[in-house]
Automatic annotation (TrEMBL):
Molecular function, one GO term: oxidoreductase activity, acting on the CH-OH group of donors, NAD or NADP as acceptor
Annotated keywords: NAD, Oxidoreductase, Pyruvate
Lineage: Bacteria, Pseudomonadati, Pseudomonadota, Gammaproteobacteria, Oceanospirillales
Pfam family of the protein (one): 2-Hacid_dh_C
Species assigned in the record: Vreelandella glaciei
Classification via Gene3D superfamilies: NAD(P)-binding Rossmann-like Domain (3.40.50.720)
Protein name: Glyoxylate/hydroxypyruvate reductase A
Amino acid sequence: MKIIVHIDEATQWQEALSQALPQATVLTSEAPAEERQQADYLAIWKAPAHLLQEQTQLKGIINLGAGVDYLLKTPGLPSDVPIVKLRDAGMGELMADYALYGVLHFYRSMDRYREQQQNASWQPQAVVEKSQWSVGVLGLGAIGGFVASALQQAGFQVLGWSRSPKQISGVHCFHGDGGLTELLGQVQSLITILPDTEATKHILNAERLAQLPKGASVINPGRGSLIDEQALLDALGNAEQPGHLRGALLDVFQEEPLPTNSPLWQHPNVIVTPHMAAPTPLNDAIDQVISYLHAFESGEKLSTVNPDAGY
Ligand code: NDP
């Protein structure tokens, strides 16, 4: 079995996979071209197109992350090779921390205290019960579902939304266009953990942002394409003319790194983080990749990426 690895820490991956699969040849994408050919599996994250194009007998592609948007747009991606992606693999917990931080920021009025501090203003803000603070989670997949449950267990009222109907204990689940409108109308904090697909592009446009209650906040650790950034800026308003929305915590952007001239950097009610919400924990991910390789080799049925749906 020949496996080619392409990711930033490729040497660590190469060592771990070689140790777990002593009979396999594990190479990084830095290996000479003639050695890279005729691989059985690619375990890759943001790989160059040539790595896919030069292969002739691939049995499977393992995407070393949860989002497959980059991979599905890579020229030369074979249409007949099954693709699997990391599912949770420790990212759910990191994402839940990020989401909880964002919800608490607005729920405990940290944004208002930051503003008050500019004027040395000592003014405690009222705190409602957590069960009275409703949080919407768009996307209830491996990571989004984990986040919805974690926020529910933290005491918040959680509403979730996905493409197909879902059941998550303690979470009010919606689906479909009608379900989205219903959810948006009643959440104080909205978290977007959807994949970047044709169907989710600008899912939060001006019209949908306006459906959120006045004073709602948006937390986006999903993908930049989910939000129309100009519509978000308009909905946030400015010092002279406050908008419909209270603030946003954003980890992902239409263009990354976020251009230095983006108004989002300077907006007083926006927190920008550099796509750091849920980096893949190496050990969990390696264990999952090893189990994928065993499953591929033994012909086990795997839940694969659906390129038509885009995730
Ligand atoms: P999954 O593929 O497991 O789940 C995707 C979820 O989105 C599913 O619930 C799916 O619905 C739902 N969905 C997809 N398309 C639509 C649609 N058109 N309408 C309604 N719901 C839809 O993904 P993960 O939970 O593992 O990850 C989600 C995303 O989080 C990734 O794609 C990635 O973009 C982002 N991410 C960001 C990171 C960061 O550091 N900022 C780190 C890791 C991930 P259904 O269940 O019905 O299929």
